[in-house]
Structures are given as structure tokens and as C-alpha cells.
Hints:
The structure holds two protein chains of two kinds.
Chain A: H1 2-23, E1 28-32, H2 36-50, E2 54-58, H3 61-70, E3 79-84, H4 85-93, E4 97-98, E5 119-132, H5 133-140, E6 163-166, H6 172-185, H7 187-198, E7 201-205, H8 210-217, E8 222-226, H9 227-236, E9 240-243, E10 250-258, H10 264-274, H11 277-287, E11 290-291, H12 316-321, H13 323-334
Parallel strand pairs in A: 1-2, 1-3, 6-7, 6-8
Antiparallel strand pairs in A: 3-10, 4-10, 5-8, 5-9, 5-10, 5-11
Chain B: H1 2-16, H2 19-45, H3 49-56, H4 59-92, H5 98-110, H6 114-124, H7 129-134, H8 144-169, H9 172-180, H10 185-214, H11 217-222, H12 229-240, H13 243-275, H14 290-319, E1 320-322, E2 326-329, H15 332-339, H16 341-371, H17 377-385, H18 392-402, H19 414-438, H20 442-450, H21 455-484, H22 500-510, H23 513-538
Antiparallel strand pairs in B: 1-2
Amino acid sequence: MWRLGVVCIVLLLIAGMLLPAQGQPQRLMVYGAIHETEIAKMLEAFTKATGIPAEFIRGSSGELVARIKAERASPKADVKLGGPADSHEALALEGLLMPYIPPEAKNIDRRFRSPLHYWHGFYIGALGIAINKPRFDKELRPKGVDYPKTWEDLLNPAFKGEIVVANPATSGTAFTFVATHLQRLGWEKGWEYLTAFHKNVNHYTRSGAAPANMAATGEFIIGIAFGHDILKPAKQGYPVMLVYPPDTGWEIGAVSIIKRGPNPEAAKKFVNWVLTREAGKLHTEISLRISVRPDVPVPEGVIPISQIKLLKNYDLSWAARERNRILAEWERRFK
Amino acid sequence: MLDQVRLQAKEFRRIAADPLLLTLLVIVAGLLVVFILFPVVRVLTLPRLEHWHEFLGRPALLRAAIHSLVMMILSTTTATLVGLLFAYALVRTQMPMKAFFRTLTLLPLISPPFVTGLAFILLFGRRGLFTYSVLGLDLNPYGWHGLWMAQTLAFFPVAYLTIAGVLRSIDPALELAAQDLGASGFQIFRTVTLPLLTPGIASAALLVGIFVLADFGNPMLIGGNYSVLATEAYMQVIGRYNTEMAALLASVLLLPSLALFLAQRYVMEKRSFVTVTGRPSALGRKPAPWYVTWPLFGFCLAVSLVILAIYLVIVLGAFSKVWGVDWSLSLRNFQYTIFRQRDLYNSVRFALSAAVLTAALATLSAYLIERKSFLGREVLDFFTVLPAAVPGTLIGIGYVLAFNQPPLELTGTAAIIVLCMAFRTLPVGYRNAVSVLHQIDVAIERASEDLGADSLRTFVHIVLPLLKYAFFATLVYTFVKSINTLSAVIFLISPGNVVASASILGLAEHGYWGQAAALATALITLGLLSVVVFRLIAGRRAQLFEL
Lengths: 335, 547
């Protein structure tokens, strides 16, 4: 009897494991680089709008690019959702993306998409400085230190060991940060800046949004992250302040279709849906990012892009082309 | 000599006459080759000479290798020491609260290892509950010192279990003899107990060393800039898209790990010659004196309180509204757990399937290897226990490399995760089954065969019933280890096949500590529940987590 029971359990378990894999309808497979809850909510809305079920995993942008490259021989995902455009550009340069012109593309400014329609931007983000206000006021104010307002202010020795930023090898945010300074100051001067900055850094995290949360909880006084990642904990009630320094780096968050993915038709529908006004509105509301569509309202508490002094000539494709050289140099200097 | 040859020949004929046995043998050997040997070989052969040149030219990578070794030596030393003190205190003294201490040492074994790292940030971080809110200190746990402490706490139970097992098996007659000859308590410990215990301590240290070397979650969470090989290999894959370098780093990691593993096997084999003398003796030892018992009690209490604090803080973190800012109780973090219940469900589903697979395969291979003699028996035995020596990072990368193309294209499926979980815990299940088989006289099976039963009938009707508790222990062990495993599985998750341990790491890394703690609480509860169920059904008839 006992043996029979075990045999039954074994069979049941194996069946339970295999059945859903076979009975699955065509599912859209998404590699998402934005926060888990945001991806999940967007996919929920997409499924509701189109009836196409979708699955995802979340990873940092670099992680996902690595996966897509590793799966080159037989791609497992249909779209890469989010992450800075240069990561999409890097994939396009490797021939791993499928160009597609969605009907909604006509509503997107050409600055915000790949000229050959490999990727389309759906949000804009700008780098900001997250400051833990109570700790700053208590520990640094009395020493006569003011809130940092420019990139140069961050070199103040008073901040030694109190700044966190992500590792550019794993985080699109941090890569944008490094590339910003290399373009703002030029290669030589840029590295000089980063070397001076490194002296104040406590450590480099893997994920780009982590520094914002670490500054929010007061683990560290200052974190470098995209503005929307800093606004999120602020909205939850953490005493964290956002400063956009002049000449700040920015990203276009993009969506792209992976070549030879399992479900290209669903992928096309998804990309077009992401670019619609409704999807833009939903995404903006849950993520506090800024939509590339002028007809999507800016959420409350968010600073409109027109009031941020962006670095004028930030060149996305330069950053994508030089990625390996930049990362090698970064590792040589700071690891 | 001639007798042996004749015996071998007889065994061969026995196997040849039993096609079922031959088939099973081929299946087991085939599985081991495909799912253990092949992935490892794929990793080892991937890097070419130029990658080794690159490795030697990149100081950051060499430093990670040194960090791995340094961290292994530091954590192994402290974890073994703490484990030794615990074992002595719990086996040899008559202190109160033993059950409490024993239960607490079990906790780190059944929860995800990175829980210690997560709790460390919550407790001793810059805004830690203990260091900052209670003591007003501003300590920075990120780095080697925080990692050292976390690893010590996470892995000392392994040392404790190993040493306690050996300590219990030491024949009291030897110590009593020393006592009768007038030796003082410390003299007995130094000249009799300790030498007898040395193989146990060595074995414990070597096991802990393997675990520390391979650990991935804690260095990721609190290592700060102190990178080790396991995390660096992961970074190479995800950050630099450099699979060759990742494979190389994992290979470098395999070397010390394999050395420790072989050393441990050697020590344990030697040990059995020393302690096999022990018949259970009715003679009682003199209990340890108060000046030994009470300091040890204080020590155990202190360590146990830290462990308790670690788990309480996880639960507290899960139930508090905004960690460090708003302490009011809330279920908000669990909303996310419910929102992502699929991850938890996947963890359970995969771990259950892996448990069945491991238990079945372990029992079968233990029976074949222990009871049948055939060419290459030792080799098969070695490959069955090999996964214990292979760091999870290497297995993960190996599975991706080995199974991302036909004929066996498994990446992106649930099967690859289940297989990975199953083969990683195979060594423990196998050892469980072998140790039970050792205690069963072969004559029973021979009798069955002589009466005309074939080996399947014998296996099902004679061996399986005797092995059922070992089988059950393996089921539970594999389940608990698999819901918590991270280092290998992190390379294998895919859309729709995400497991909870990977989500926890992602959340914790983003600084969503409340949500991470909520999901971790759910995993720990599952682990505890399955152990409780095991004890209810099996009682003390089988060992679980006695490594």
C-alpha cells in the first residue's frame, strides 16, 4: 500500500510539472528591466487589452542583454522591456533585434527612437542625487556642508564613505552615470572626476535603483540613481530628497523585439501597445517616470523634463559602442 | 586472490543473467554522466589559453580569488570553533535549555543562506535595529568583516552537526580509563577526547570550507566591494557578457573545493577505523564540572540569541510598514508576496519534483553501488557524490552551457531547474541510503534471490521497505534545500519559471527589504513545516540534516 502511494505521488508530481508546459497557449515572453511590480502591472493591462497572456523575468539591463546574447542560437524571449536605449542599441549592433515600425511610432519624437526602428523609447529618466535629509541635517549641516547641487559638489571629502552608486557592469543606471561624465568632461578629465568621486564611494551595488533606497532608509547619506527611483521611496514616506544637478545624464527607456523570439506577432502587438497613450499613462503613474508622449500628463510630484538641465550632447550610440572599453577601464581603476 | 577473481566472475555472471539490473545500471550511469559530468566538463573546457592570460592580467579577478580563499579560512575557522563549542556543550554537559539550542542551530540549515546577510543589514546595518536604534552606533557591515560574521553564523550548524555526531560515537571506556588513572577533566579532554575528535573536527572544517567557498547570496548582499569568485563569475556573465571568463572563474573555484572534498572523504574513511570499536557502553561519564558548563552555557545562549534575533528581525521586517521609518505593523509587504505567489508556488512545485527524483535516484544508485559489484563501481560512487564538491555557480553555468542546444535543449524550461535541484542534493540522499544499507545484512537479499526473486522483486519487496525512512529523509532534505537554493538556479530561471529565492535576492538588492523579508518569512515557514511533518511521521527513526 505504502509503495503504491509513493508511486502515485511520483506520477502526480511529474504530471503536475509537465502539464502546464504543454497546455500553454502562445505566451508573450518578456525580459523586463524595470521594477517587478511595474512589469507585472503592465503585463496585466496588456493581457486585459489584447487577450494575450504574458510571462516575464526581471533582471538588470546588463543581465538581460547577457541572457539574450547567450540565447542567440535559440532565443527564449520576445521582447526586452525597459532599460536604457544604449543597452538596446548594443543588441541591435550585434544583430539580435528585429526592426519593426509600430503604428503608434508616429506619435513618438524621432529623438526617442532608433533611426532604423530597432527600439522605441517609452519613457525618459534623468540622473539625480538622493539625499537622506535627517542624516544630512544632523551629521553634515553642523560642519557647514550644504546639500550637493552639482556633480562637483559630490567630491567634497565630507561625503567620504557616504555615497553609494551601482556597478556600471551590471546596472544601466550606473553605466549612464559613468558615460555622462566621460562625455561631459572628455575621456581623460572624465576618469579624473570618477577617480576623485570613487574616494567618497562606500561601495558599488549591483542594481541601479538600490542606491536610492539605501539613501532613503539612511543606510547611506547620498545615493546616485535615476530621479524616478528616488521619488518612489519619497512617496512611500521615506525622508529622501531629490536633486537634479546641471548637466545630468539621462536615459531613454526603450522596448525592443528580440529576433527569432518564440512569439513575434504578440511581440509586435506588445511594442505597439506600450507606445499607446493608455500604456504610457499607466506606466507613468506606477513608476513616476516621464513618458515620451507629450499627451501623457506628468504625475504629481514629478519634475517635468523641461525643468531639468540635461547634458546636451549625450550620445547614446557612443556609449553603446564604447561599452567594453569603458567597463574594462572602470574595472582597472576601481576594483 | 584466486577466490576474489572467482567471486568477481560470479558477480559478472549474476549481472549478465539479470538484464533488468544491467538496464538500471546503464540508466543510472547515463544520468550521472549527462547531468553531472557533462556540465562540469563543458565549463572546464570552455576557457582557452587566451582567457587564462586575461585572467592573470586582471588584478581585480585575482583579488577575487584571494578574497575567496581568505574568507574561506576566516569563516571556516570561526564556524568550526563555534560548532565545536556547541557540540561539546550539547553532548557532554548537563546544561539547561538544550532543546532550545538544538532547535536554533537547525534554523540556518533550513532557511536560505542569504537570510543571514539580509538580517545583518536590518540588524547591524547603518540604520540597523540593534546597532543604530538601540546602541546608537553607526557601523558599516558592508565588507569582509560583515561577511565573515554572516558566514560564521550561517554555516556553524554544519560544523556542530558533524562534530556532535563524532562526539557521540566516542567510546566512553577510553575516557573512563583516563579518569580512573587520575587524569583531570582538562587533561582527559586534551589527551583523549580531542585526539579522538580531531578527524571529526577536520571533517567539519572541510565541509564548512566547501560551503563558504561556494556561497553566493551573502557576498552579494553584504560583501560590499569585497568580491569573491562566486559573485565575480556571476558578474562576468551578466555584466560583461563574458561566459568564458565566468567559466574560468568557476573552474578556479572548483580546485580548492575539490581538494577540500577529497580531503574530507579521506579523513572520514580513516576515522571509521578509529571509532568502529564503540559498542554502546553502559558506563557513564562524569558530567562536565560547573566551571565548564556555565561559560559554555553563556556562549551558547549568546550565539542562540543572535540567531533568534536574525529570524525575529526578518519576521519583524516583514510585518512592519516602512523599515527604519515607520514601525507600525502592517501586512503591506505580504501583498507583494501574494501578488507574486507564482514564485513561491514554483519553488514548491520544482522542489517537490526534485525531491521525488533525488530520493528515487539516490535509493536506486545506493542499492546498485552498495550491493552489486561491477566494473567501475568506485567511479560511479565518486560521480554520485561529486556534486557536493562542485560550487553552485559552476553547476549553473554548466547547465546553461550544456543544455542550451539540441539534442538536449532545456534552457527556459522548468525541467532544467528541477534537474539542477535534484542532482545538487543527490550526494546527501545517496549517503543517507548507503548508511542504512550498511546496517542491513546482505544475507536477507541473497536469500530472496536464492528463492528465485529477480533483483527488481528483491529491491521492491526487501530493500525498499527497509529504506523507507532514509527515502523519506531524502525527500524532505531535498525539498528544503531546493526551495532555498540560489547560486545555481539564478542562471536557470526564465519567464514563468522564477523561484522565490531569486526574487528575494532581487528585492533585497534593490533595497526593498520589507518585501524581501516577507517572502523570506514564507520560505522559512515552509522549511520549518516540512521538518515538523517529517518528525511527526518518522519520529527518531531516521536522521535529517545530519550531514
